[in-house]
Design brief:
By secondary structure, this protein is α/β, with parallel strands linked by helices. The protein contains 10 helices and 14 strands. A 6-stranded parallel beta sheet has the order 9-8-7-10-11-12, with helices on both faces. It has a 3-stranded mixed beta sheet with strand order 1-5-4, with no helix packed on it. Keywords: Metal-binding, Oxidoreductase, Zinc.
Length: about 325
Amino acid sequence: MASKYPVILGHEAAGVVESVGEGVTIVKPGDKVIPLFLPQCRKCSTCLSPEGNLCILSDVTGRGVLGDGSTRFRCRGQPVYHFMGISTFSEFTVVGESAVAPIQAAAPPEKVCLIGCGFSTGYGAAVKTGKVTPGSTCIVFGLGGVGLAVIMGCKAAGAARIIGVDINKDKFAKAMAVGATECLSPLDSQQPVSEVLSERTGGGADFTFEVVGRLDTMVDALASCHMNYGCSVMVGAPPSTQKLSFDPMMLLTGRTWKGCVFGGWKSQDDVPKLVTDFMAKKFDLDTLITHILPFEKIQEGFELLTSGQSIRTVLTF
């Protein structure tokens, strides 16, 4: 993601309101909340559309400031910039009123923090953006935290067959545990993975999900869904400076290619509902959390991530 430096990173968290500014009514000091990297101003054309969720106040281009154009962080007299409007790798942060969702007081922050991005993005990609149907065949490229949440969403929607794809076979057991029916590595065949998957599914899957953020896997995912009625959902964030090249005939035959931001959820409306569903045991977040570390060991958390040893590492203060 683009960013302006110096910056306080982080966009997936849960916390407690310390204080509020003048005119703030949606939360009060002491409320348990989830910060929203995708705000909901309720006024722009996207917020007013029943199908939209990419609010005009979202900082996806890396401006590094809040909705009013200001930065609220300073160090040695110089401005420090915000990341996606919430900057959660910090003991304290400042967010706009449209970028926070109050949640029920009993919700465990060390678990529901995942609803701030990873879980919601993957789960929603299946149930809301892709609209997976009962009895369907789904393929998920990338078995990290978001990919596993996609699998959970596919299972919840009633998919009959869910194929996980990753070059790291250590991820397969976890994928099977959350709902995958089979897994494969593209490195195990000389054939292009889309051809392997087409053969396995008898002509392509009903739904495919790219949850890696690589150009080659985006095209592979599109090619792996059925050429006429298949739907491929792009979930992984693509490299910001690269362009995609693909055969347009893949779309002309009838495939649907969809983008997905935060699972299609309207953040302030839907995050509290997802927390309520978690508290009602409609889905499990424990399977996605592999490590819990004190904030001081954040570098160790990133090392676990880049080495492929973790799914989600939760940092605590």
